[in-house]
Known about the structure:
The chain is mainly alpha-helical. The protein has two domains: 2-97, Winged helix-like DNA-binding domain superfamily/Winged helix DNA-binding domain (Arc Repressor Mutant, subunit A, Orthogonal Bundle); 150-261, Alpha Horseshoe (Serine Threonine Protein Phosphatase 5, Tetratricopeptide repeat), CATH 1.25.40.
Amino acid sequence: MVNWRVLGPLEIVHHGRHIDAGPPQRRAVLGILLLARGKPVSRGRITRLLWGDDPPASPTNSLRTHVSRLRQTFRENGLTADHARLLTVGDGYRLTTGDGSLDLVRFERLTCQAKDAPDRTALPLFESAFALWRGPMLPELSSDVFRENVLPRYEEVRLTAYENHVDARLRVGEHVGLVPELLEFTQEFPYRTRLRIQLMLSLYRCGRGAEALTVYRDTRGHFSAQLGLDAPAELRALESLILTESPSLTDVSHFVSMDLLRPTRPLAATRPVSHTWSVN
């Protein structure tokens, strides 16, 4: 069994043994091909993702060398065609690996299962999924093209899964432990409505209603000063519920299933998520 890991620095683990994939640029090429999940990636796209606006004098030759050395690494470490098949396809390359061997795929499967499971079943599934992340995704890929146009979509997937995890924890009464986590996340992602809702609710359930209202006022100020917008309707609705001390706020099964916690618009992270780029 080979484990291909992109949720952090790139790693290849074969029967518990780490395989050295070479210098950072070569690992970056491998990371790009892994993210394509078996689809061909053109040399031009790899060049843009790898070097951005500053490619070497002969990027095609550089890529051929990296691919050749990767194939050699696979052979020397006993990786057969069942483990990895790196093919030249047209003007690019395609890497196929065993089903479920990529940590990103396992993360998506676990979080999908958790979202549809009862809360007590979902919690360990979410925890197993987040344990797959070992740090920032693929630090070997440092080009602005990758960091600004590809990476945000994976950050969005991770954040949405985290928010689903928080919802499940709120439904089982874990609001006390959530407050410090959510304070940190809302600082990092100040315009993410759902996280603000979850923080306000957690604070209120801890008997800290005044602090929950302060979060609302701070959010309204951020949206006004930075975006020229009023606070989102979901937050305004929650403020009204807090001001009237609505019993629904402490009714776990009723409140978290309300549309208030199901935003009707895409929620932004710190940067807009681009849908115009992919790795393949």
